[in-house]
Amino acid sequence: MKKRLTICLAIFSLLPPLSNAHDNEESLDFKQFVAQQDKEFSAYKKNIDKEFAQFVAAWQLAEDAYRAKISEKWQKPLLPGKKQWIDYSADLNQRTTVDFDSGAITVEIHQSLTPQQVTILAEKTITQLTNTSLSDTLAKDPIVQAVNKQLIDDNKQLAMPKISPTLLAKEYIGELATISSQREQNKTTITIPLKPNLLSDNAQRYYPFAQQQAQRWQIPASLILAIIHTESSFNPLARSHIPAFGLMQIVPSSAGKDVTEFLNGKTTLLRPEYLYSAEQNIEAGSVYLHLLMSRYFKGVKNSKNKLYMSIAGYNTGPGNVARALSNTTSLKRATQSANEQTSEQLYFQLIDNLPHQETVNYLEKVLQRTSYYNNLLTKESI
Questions:
Q1: Is the pLDDT score of 360 beyond 70?
Q2: Residue of 267 and 361 predicted with greater confidence
Q3: Which residue, 76, 232, 296, 327, has most beta carbons within 10 Å?
């Protein structure tokens, strides 16, 4: 019996420990799992980056093509922008511009109109602008249509979301008696003034969404309204060539990536139709502000310093803010620099060193307008 036990022990000693074999097997499985996950994530990121690049290219191509088409009839082929909504008739003979910054609607038509015809066209334009939903406006947008057609198979065409508000509320239109017109050769220009308090009326229109996100992310509602004012002058169909979309001018390929990853756990492309919903746009912009404050500039102790850096970062990106403070793109060094300065010192360092004058102006405007809307909210004017 003792001999048999000795032999068994000898054989057992030649075998690898059972626990080690199991651990090795688990380790191998885990390494394979991690490798597979890395491979899948790499492929996913590659596909997402490709999708973003395709979207940007398709958008810019559609804009260029439509601009070229417009230039056949108009010396200045204007397209919709951040603070102006521009629409052309199907035959391109009429152009309607809603300028949210100056507060006026301009109708230009390649036709000499009588005073009576001017009144009829002005009334028709007002009716269209105040009764057509944003969804219907987008459905007829030639640039949005061209992008969808290029990127999505007809069988997989995305349904246009229902965005019920109109571009303008009826109460924003001035008196018909204030309408003016000008005729020159074979062209008539009609100007329809909007009410002087358009900006504060629009702030009131979108304040409930701003307030909701302000409470959710612990951001002042006055700051959200100030950024909307500065980015788009409350134009719900704002866009830029970058491209960026909506009230808070969300760039799908930069801020949009951070926002979707934070909200959904994965990066997805925020399309124009999504970002033209005021509620969704203000959510995306507020989340990005939250990320600037709580992630990129988390270590900044002085609340004013964090505010200044976040406002500048919203416009130019956190890397450029870091460069202005530390001459590198290191957020750690930027944070260290910020923590060594008073709010006044940091403010003037940003003013002196931000890479673009646009961002300097942006920072100044947003701060001024934050104070303005804070006063309005304090007085319960909104």
A1: yes
A2: 361
A3: 232
Bridge partners for 99 per DSSP: 84, 104
Give alpha helix (H) positions in 165-277: 198-217, 221-232, 255-264, 272-275
Cβ atoms of 70 and 54 closer than 8 Å: no
pTM reported for the whole predicted model: 0.85
Name the nearest CA neighbour of 221 among 3, 45, 382, 29.
Answer: 382
Q: How confident is the model at residue 350 (pLDDT cuts 50, 70, 90)?
A: very high
Neighbours of 208 (CB within 10 A): 14
- pLDDT score, position 161: 57
Q: Which two tokens stand for residue 97?
A: 């511009």
The token pair that represents 122 in the structure block: 């002005």
Domain boundaries, the chain: 199-378
Residue 26 exposed, middle or buried by CB count within 10 Å (0-12, 13-18, 19+):
exposed
Residue found by looking up tokens 């746009």 in the block: 281
The model's pLDDT over 105-121, given as tens digits with 9 standing for 90+, comes to 999 999 999 999 999 99
Alpha-carbon span 12 to 7, nearest angstrom: 8
Fold that domain 199-378 belongs to in CATH: Lysozyme (1.10.530)
Enter the tokens of residue 120: 């009829």
Categorize the per-residue pLDDT at 190 as very low, low, confident or very high, splitting at 50, 70 and 90. very high
Cα–Cα distances (Å) from 19 to 5, 22, 31, 269, in that order, read 22, 5, 18, 47
